Amino acid sequence: MILSKQQEAKIQSLLQEMTLEEKIGQMNLASVSIVGGFDVPFEELIEMVGDGRLSNEEFGKIMQSAERDFHEEEIRAGKIGSLMLQDPVKANALQKIAVEESRLKIPLLIGLDVIHGFRTVYPIALAEAGAFEPELFERTARMAARESRSRGVAWHFAPMIDVARDARWGRVSEGPGEDPFLVSEFARSKVRGLQNDQTSTEHYVAACLKHYVAYGACEAGRDYNTTTMARSLLHNAYLPPFEAAVQEGAVSVMAAFNDWNGIPCTGNKFLLTTMLKETLGLDGFVVSDANGIRECVAHGTAKEESDAGAQAVNAGMDMDMGTGIFLKHLPEHVKAGRVSERTIDQAVERILRVKMWLGLFDHPYVSEEAMHRYDVLPPQHRELALEAAKKSIVLLKNDEHLLPLKKDLKISLVGTLADNPEEIIGSWAMSWKIEDCVSIKQGLERIGANLTYHPCGGPEGELNEAEIEAAVREGDVIVAVVGELVSMSGEAASRADISLPGAQRKLLEKLVASKKPVVAVLMNGRPLALEWEAQHIPAIVEGWHLGVEMGNAVASVLFGETNPSGRLASTFPKTAGQCPIYMSHPNTGRPGSKSKFTSRYLDAGFEPLYPFGYGLSYTTFDYHAFSVALEDKRLIASVNVTNTGKAAGTETVQLYMRDVTASIVRPIRELKGFKKVTLNPGETKRVVIELEKSHMGFYDDDRKYHLEDGVFQIFMGANARDCMMQEVVVTF
Ligand code: BGC
User: I need a labelling partner for 560 at 20 to 30 A (CA). Which of 291, 322, 411, 640 fits?
Assistant: First the structure.
């Protein structure tokens, strides 16, 4: 964050002028409270939605007429420095109170969860990461930044960069997958996209890296669960994306809910101060997750909320999301000497610097023009959402070239998900409009498919036998859209059984039994266990939750206007019992193999269903002439890739390494680079990927970085399984 001398001076003079209460007010992030207008308490309403007594639609209606408290009084009194909100008219009104009526006239920082798009929703991160295209990640983030800033939201609770290796965890959908290298590339690009275009205050926002840290390692994939790991694993796998994004200039970080090795991240001085601020060098502030400070009492590391507040601030927490504990208890702690005023000053300075860097002091308001700039999605935004959606689709299986489909075939489209525009959006999207969403059915109709639609059944409810019979009778080919509802992934949406929910497997069994060719199009927010499907369905398209353009993207792939090129950013297990299963697993003394006394399951072996980096194309690629050259400072891996099929296509060439012998056990594969290459039929290109030798090391438990001479295996290929390998001796 680079500020001018005058800006730095303004912050210092504000700090001089502020009372302790005003300082603590800046450390308080509030959300709009629902205060009434309905007959039962708000908490019960939420429970009613959870247990099905109230539909989402009814809940939405109640919320629209609910009475809200926008905390005008507290803003005026300088007790709230940041707010979660997405209404620009209200945002302007509240900013006016902050900058005209509060004593020190400090603008509010308005934040929101903008995870994969604002008005224009693009694919969930798990899908987008599969495009393996940093430049795309950056462009989509830039679009989201402009859209949200035009509505007064200057702070995104994004990117979510939790390395996530257990498909049972619902939040795998929000992040870019399992691999520290790919997640780091994603993290850097997202920060650039959100923050770097400072040509106008309307073009950039503050990023908030989350969830710091190791939330993705929650035990058994159960949300909010405990995490325990060697420190070396933290340094080698879970911290690198945060380190990369902090280096890129990310100006805020959100602490995770979980404990890490026994201390909640929220109150963890080693993580927040020693690592994040002092070692990684965060030049911004840390905010708790929602209610996170109070939850330290439930964790059992704080006696009561006041204690939790003192622990958090002393650990390095700068802002309290949602509990008001800082506001209520920090003054008494400072007076009693349990928290130093210096700690408070440092937190406030970090927050004020971000507000200044965002230009909020000079431009606190949203103009009337900006407010309505994206009421109708601009064509370029739709195009980018479509491009991202197409590039995120992964072709998992395509026996006998069933795909692409010919236009004259009669298609029976099956599955309730096919005709449900709301379900294409994915978890954590808050500002989209239903009229912008293109369902798969709509996409197929627009492309001119010869189509009849038979809902038959979906993730919930019974199958409709008559509709199944009609689908089988009427179609030359059946396109079955199956998968998860949006509500089945995201926060608090862990699943113990990650096969297709409800009666969808049965539906597929019936369709396959008809002997008509079946194409399965998946809509889901996590890797699913699809062993049966992979054995019995001839063509499988992984469509994830792709955002507003999903239907058009899927139709384009099904009819071959787009040759699919997405890859898996997360390993697909055969069954949930294999979870967590991931590419970068440390080796064991008995590596999994066909023989019994090795690290394997009797009933599921040791291999996943689909490896990391996997994805097919309508063409085929051949790898040959692989070579590895060593220079003083780098290793250069090269391979020829030939398009051996009949269609032009894009391949993602991946570089992996394995440190064969080291002072601590190393992973059997580590992704170290990738390059996308587009080839016409018959064309060959030599793909060269360089690896800095300084990136071939690893951390130990004390965060000492080791570069150890010895044999390394270097792999290049189409995914973590299908690679060519060469051994080289590397000296550093
Ligand atoms: C989530 C965060 C989110 C926050 C604010 C929490 O429940 O864990 O990811 O940013 O809510 O909405």
Answer: 640
Are 11 and 352 a contacting pair, CB within 8 Å? yes
Model pTM score: 0.97
Q: How remote is the CA of residue 290 from the centroid of ligand 1, in Å?
A: 6
pLDDT, tens digit, 9 for 90 and up, residues 365-383: 999 999 999 999 999 999 9
Q: Is 157 in the pocket of ligand 1 (CB under 6 A)?
A: yes
The residue whose CA is least distant from atom 4 of ligand 1 is 290
C-beta atoms surrounding 675 within 10 Å: 16
CB of 156 closer than 6 angstroms to any ligand 1 atom: no
Q: Is 307 a catalytic residue?
A: no
Long-range contacts of residues 56-64, Cβ cutoff 8 Å, at least 24 apart: 62/37, 62/38, 63/34
Distance CA 246, CA 178 (A): 20
621-730 classified as CATH 2.60.40.10: yes
Please give the distance, rounded to the nearest whole angstrom, from the Cα atom of residue 652 to the centre of ligand 1.
33
> Of residues 166, 179, 259, 289, which has the active-site annotation?
289
In degrees, to the nearest 5, what angle opens at C-alpha 176 toward C-alphas 171 and 179? 110
Alpha-carbon Rg of the chain, whole angstroms? 26
Probe target for ligand 1 pocket from 321, 430, 431, 489, with the most ligand atoms within 8 Å of CB? 321
Give the CA distances from residue 558 to residues 387, 477, 527, 710, 729, in Å, rounded to whole numbers and listed in that order.
15, 12, 21, 48, 46
Query: What is the SS3 assignment for 651?
Result: strand
Q: What is the pLDDT of residues 316-345, one digit of tens each?
A: 999 999 999 999 999 999 999 999 999 999
Domain ranges of the chain: 379-578, 621-730
H/E stretch holding 536: helix 531-536
Q: Which atom of ligand 1 is nearest to the CA of 210?
A: 9
Q: Please, which residues have CB within 8 angstroms of residue 413's CB and are 6 or more apart in sequence?
A: 440, 441, 444, 451, 452, 453, 454, 479, 481
Measure 717 CA to ligand 1 centroid, in angstroms. Answer: 38
Report the candidate in 202, 203, 213 with the shortest Cα–Cα distance to residue 240. 213
Q: In CATH, which superfamily holds the domain spanning 379-578? A: Glycoside hydrolase family 3 C-terminal domain (3.40.50.1700)
Which amino acid does the sequence have at 215? Answer: Y
- Measured between alpha carbons, how far is 335 from 720 in angstroms, rounded to an integer? 57
* Assigned token pair, 223: 């949300």
**399 burial level (CB within 10 Å; 0-12, 13-18, 19+):** exposed
Q: Provide the 3-class DSSP secondary structure of residue 430.
A: coil
- Give the rounded percent of residues in the chain with a pLDDT score beyond 90: 95
- HSE-up of residue 123 (Cα within 13 Å, Cβ side): 37
465, with CB counted inside 10 A (0-12, 13-18, 19+), is exposed
Ligand 1 centroid to residue 316 C-alpha, Å: 19
**Contact 113 CB / ligand 1 (< 6 Å):** yes
Look over the chain and give the mean of its residue pLDDT values, rounded to a whole number: 96
